[in-house]
Amino acid sequence: MGGTKVQRLSGMQKQVLSLYRGFLRVARSKSEEERRNIESVVNQEFRRNSKEVDRKNFQYIEYLLRRGNKQLDQLRNPGTIGLSSLQIDFLKIN
Amino acid sequence: MALRAAILRHVRVPLQASPKLQPWNGSIRSMSSHDDHLTKEEVVDRVLSVVKDFPKVDPSKVTPEVHFQKDLGLDSLDNVEIVMALEEEFKLEIPDKEADKIDSCHLAIEYISNHPMAG
User: Dihedral of CA B92/A14/A64/A39: which sign?
Assistant: First the structure.
C-alpha cells in the first residue's frame, strides 16, 4: 500500500485502514501486555497481506475484510482478553 | 407490576464496558477555563515529537510541513499508526473520515489546534 507516490485512497483501501485502526483502538482497551501482543500480530498480518495479496484480487480482499471485522468484533467483547484465543484462527487460515 | 418486579429480580443484563465512554473526562474538562487551551506552538512541538519518535522516521527530516508518505517514506498503515499516536498524545478520538485526511504534520497541527478537546 502507499509507497512514495501518494494516490487517493480507494473505498476498499479505506475499509482496510479503518479495520486496522479498529484493531489498534480495541488493543488500547486491553492490558498493556495484551495490547503489545495484539499490535504486533495485527501489524504483521496487515503488512504481510499488503505485500502478498494482489491489490486487484478484490474478492480475496473482501474475504479478508470480512474475516478481520469478525475478529475485531470478537476482540471488542470485553470478555475477550486478547488475541490468544483468536490466534488459532489466524494460524489455521494462513 | 408484581410480575415485572419478579422478572427484574431474576434477569441479569450484563454490563457492556465501552472504552469510548468516559463521562468523567467531559465533566472535568468543562470545568477548565479557556485559558489553558493549547497554544499553537505547543501543538507544533508535541506533534513533531510524536512523529520523530515513530520508529521508521528519521527525526532529522521532520519539520512542521513534512508529508508522512511523500517526505518520510511511510505507507498508509504507518500513517494510521501516527494518527493513532497523535490521538493518544492529545487525548482525542479522531473519526475515520478525518483521520484519513491527516497525511502530513501540517494537517495534523491544523486539525489538533482547531480541536476544542485537545489536551
Answer: negative
